[in-house]
Amino acid sequence: MSIYEAIYKSDENEEMVTVFNIEQHENFTDVKNNLYCTYQGCTARLSYVPKGKVRAYFKTWPKEDHTQDCVDYFERVATANKQRSVATSTMELSEKHVKNVLDNLRKKRKEAAGTGKPKSGNKKKPRPTVDPGSGENTTLNIVPTTGPNADLASGEDNVREPSVRNRSLINLTVDDLNWTRSIEGYIQNVEVGDKRAVLQLQDGSNSFLIYFEEYFFDNAAVNFGRYFQDLQNLANEHQGYLFSGVGLIEQRNNQFCMLVNRGNDFRIDDQYIAVFLANLSA
User: Fold this and answer.
1) What domain range includes position 137?
2) Which is deepest, 39, 159, 250, 260, by most CB within 10 Å?
């Protein structure tokens, strides 16, 4: 049973937050690291899980326990078998799949004005005990990738392509590292070098770098170098072109970043970069 409300505790005060307004909080970074259960007398710590394949929610912090009378109390079974997946394989995402991901980003952005209301936690029923035998079935875990040396080609062995979770610049966590995600943000700066380009995105005070490196340029059309130079010139004059893309989340210099591997895995103002530049010059 998901949790949709939490208490943010700071040195000065306590504040109720919900999954629908937490990312708009001016102190979001501090808020998401100091969340607690709303049930009176329960001190269990919570963590925020941003919207991905399912809607956003709060979950109980690892090894934290709710009080037995709390509506979110559940029994931990130390012997529960959590290893549902005994093998992991990477699958290359098709260009069609990535296109759908980017199209959905644009669609959700246009629908962003309509948001739901948080559900009250008062009507929730107590959680069931964890079943220790619930994880005995073995499955193959398919991980999405746009990089080289994927274990499976797109759709190989009639296996459905794995989903790609969307993240904003402010809600990336260590759980996203080494996973393929989708990201959006406004371009503030572009650096171009030999077989290398770096886009700096900005969301408030949060900065995020998008890397295009040797593998990208070795496999992309030869004119991508010029495309990035033209984009650099445009960014010097106007900061605010929208980047949306799919790539691997990494951590460099203690900062989250994204590595893009293919030319059709990103867009500028909802257009492929060649189309974007052509429309501007038309």
Assistant:
1) 85-116+133-157
2) 260
**Listed range (20-34, 75-89, 240-254) with the worst mean pLDDT:** 75-89
Do residues 190 and 232 make contact, with C-beta atoms less than 8 angstroms apart? Answer: yes
Sorted by sequence, the CB contacts under 8 Å of residue 242 that are 6+ apart come out as 184, 185, 186, 187, 268, 269, 270
Q: Where are the beta strands (DSSP E) in the chain?
A: 5-9, 14-18, 35-36, 45-49, 57-60, 85-92, 139-145, 165-167, 180-193, 196-203, 206-212, 242-252, 255-260, 266-268
Domain count, the chain: 2
Helix, strand or coil for residue 245? Answer: strand
Residue 85 has pLDDT above 60, yes or no: no
Residue 176 lies in a domain: no
